[in-house]
Amino acid sequence: MDTYDQPRSLAQPIDLCAAIDAAVTAAHAGAAILQSYAHHRADLVIDRKARNDLVSQADREAEAVIIQELQTRTPKFGIVAEETGGKPQGIATWYIDPLDGTTNFLHDIPHYAVSIALIAHAGTAVSATETLKEDTPVIGVVYDPNREELFTAVYGMGAWLNGRRIKCSRTQTIEDSVLATGFPFRDFSFADQYMPMLNDAIKRARGVRRMGAAALDLAWTACGRYDGYWEMGLAPWDVAAGTLILREAGGTCTDMHKLDPWPIGGRVVAGNPAIERALHDMVAPHLDNPPSDAA
């Protein structure tokens, strides 16, 4: 059972069409802020939250614009955002990463995105005939402003790239796969678990890529550019939108420990169903017991 603040209202299903429209509008607004700074990176004020964990005024201003848009259009939903925080509440909560790939952005590497997801909480109706039994991503938007690629998904309706339906790959084995991953970069507590996983993947897969933006890793897996993806040490807003986009593209995205209904703890295994199972088998021998924050 959850402990969110506001009571569930089951009389009317959540309006997913209105929510996806709000998320797309907010993502474009946030991206416009990012791109306005893209040619003036040297002038950005950059703060260091922790080792290798940076934030700039571009992140903060983009997040403020996104939050304003979502609060105006969906005032009853909670908000959890990377820079300003928040907590789950109401029947659903927005998870916002205004700039996934901050390090890329600050180094003029054109691979970053805005990521916005809506998580409907257990007990929320998503249609006249379905009420969710557990917290579930129901809206996902990942916008790459450099390529002008907009990945979107709506629960039960499918996933799209710039309005075209997408599906994950049909590759059946790791040996035939190109995999995406992310190295430990700010939290090194799990490095002893991760490095043997990477070693296995390098030796088995056709290729392993590390691009530095988890939301795009999941979106690219959803459209078949990657066959699978795994990573540890992420935040909920890094993976919320990409989880739904991949699931609606026919793939599977799960918590590495198979405990949470979606990878809210930031330990992700993803791909088409065959590759996701194979990746679980690959990482399991090296995985410690779940951390204490895992549900």
TrEMBL record:
Q: Name the keywords, alphabetized.
A: Hydrolase, Magnesium, Metal-binding
InterPro entries attached to this UniProt entry: IMPase (IPR033942), Inositol_monoP_metal-BS (IPR020583), Inositol_monophosphatase-like (IPR000760), Inositol_monophosphatase_CS (IPR020550), Inositol_monophosphatase_SuhB (IPR022337)
Residues where Mg(2+) binds = 82, 97, 99-100, 238
Q: Which Pfam families match?
A: Inositol_P
EC no.?
3.1.3.25
Q: Which Gene3D superfamilies match?
A: 3.40.190.80, Fructose-1,6-Bisphosphatase, subunit A, domain 1
Cofactor(s), by name: Mg(2+)
The text of the family note is: Belongs to the inositol monophosphatase superfamily.
Q: What is the protein name stated in its UniProt record? A: Inositol-1-monophosphatase
| Organism whose genome encodes this protein | Achromobacter kerstersii
The encoding gene is suhB_2
